[in-house]
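Re: the 304-residue chain
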Amino acid sequence: MKVKKIIAITLLLFFTGTMLTGCLPGTGGGQLPENRIIIAGKNFTEQDVLVHIMATLVEENSDIVVERRGYLGGTNVVHEAIVNGSVDIYAEYTGTGWTVILGEEPIDDPDEIYNLVQEGYDVQFNLRWLAPFGFNNTYGLTMRPEQAQELGIASISDLQEHAPNLNFGCSHEFLERPDGYARMNEYYGLNFQSVTGMDPGLTYAALRDGAVDVIDGFTTDGRIPAFNLQVLEDDRNFFPPYYAAPVVREDTLERLPQLEEILNRLSGRLTEAEMARLNAMVDLERMRAETVARMWLEEEGLLP
């Protein structure tokens, strides 16, 4: 009986301690210590670079400890994570926020769309858009220049006549987005011979190597100039502006108000050319995104 009683008391103490420990910040109960945040990114190179730029800037200019979660998933996955409190910050694009998350019709004016996503995210999700980084990473249908020249294709409208004989490759997300494949085809009257969804990191090599004829390129991707690819003119302005900016939970800013001032130091500093250069260092020169991010911050004089 004594042995049973000792075992029962031991188990009671163990489970009580476990329950109490689970309620403590940062020990598995789902609540981070006051000075810890999580910065996440989507599943492509540029987003990973931005995760490390934001995280390094914050850590080097404050006592805030940052957990980095690059390549967390696509737009909907990362958005859901910040809404439910699994992450505190990520970088989003105005056109994506407006059309994919808020479900609105595309708008051409970059200032108008930024103001509208600011308001929409605040009202619907209690999230705040901070100042944009400076670059517009819009979609650009991309081809091999020799094939485009042979067929006389310079714009997306020019594709209409030739699309039935061309193979289209794109990210899986582009196939599902409201500002993506289906709507673009309807808008421009395209009907490709075949459509292949793939990892966004594979599309450029697939185009270069002739596996597909047209892809959904990102205009800040360093592989476009490196592989000598041609971006077609969006002559009917289908794609909205996609200016990137940090998106932060309001309760995180209430807990750590210095974050806004620190992250806003990035405002307007990253041009399209600069972002493409940083992306190329990772994709082509095989440098680590964290190394590239720190190098750029040092070049900009943003580290103490």
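Residues 1-31 form one domain.
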